[in-house]
Amino acid sequence: MFAPGWSVFGEYNYMDFGTRTLTFIAPPGLFPVGEHVNISERVQTALFGVNYKFNWAQPVVAKY
Q1: Considering the entire predicted model, what is its pTM?
Q2: What is the C-alpha to C-alpha distance for residues 7 and 1, in angstroms, rounded to an integer?
Q3: Is residue 14 part of a domain?
Q4: pLDDT of res. 56
Q5: Residue 44 falls within a domain, yes or no?
Q6: Looking at per-residue confidence, does 2 or 50 come out higher?
Q7: Domain membership flag for residue 58
Q8: Does residue 61 lie in a domain region?
Q9: Cβ atoms of 56 and 5 closer than 8 Å
Q10: How confident is the model at residue 15, as a pLDDT?
Q11: How far apart are CA 20 and CA 36, in angstroms?
């Protein structure tokens, strides 16, 4: 919190989905006959935000 009812946050995520090898096969008579492709996917995300809490000074009371 940097002021009553206000706060900030930050989040970082790194995701590695690994590597997969795919083989594409061309129709007969075309070159190349088979081609191998390595596919790897890595994702990095960053999230920053500001929060405001309403009625910060008062306790929350459930009414039934």
Answers
A1: 0.52
A2: 4
A3: yes
A4: 58
A5: yes
A6: 50
A7: no
A8: no
A9: yes
A10: 96
A11: 10
Q: Which helix (H) or strand (E) covers residue 24, if one does?
A: strand 6-25
Distance between CA atoms of 42 and 16, rounded to whole angstroms? Answer: 5
Condensed to tens digits (0 to 9), the pLDDT of residues 4-52 reads: 888 999 999 999 999 998 887 777 666 666 777 888 999 999 999 999 8
Amino acid, single-letter form, for residue 16: D
Q: Are 16 and 52 in contact (CB under 8 A)?
A: no
Question: Residue 41's domain spans which residues?
Answer: 6-52
Residue that has been written with the tokens 């999230």 in this structure: 47
3 DSSP assignment: B
- Which candidate, 47, 41, 53, places its Cα nearest to that of 1? 53
pLDDT for res 42: 95
What total number of domains does the chain contain? Answer: 1
Q: What's at 42, amino acid-wise?
A: R
The angle formed by the CA atoms of residues 16, 40 and 10, to the nearest 5 degrees, is 30
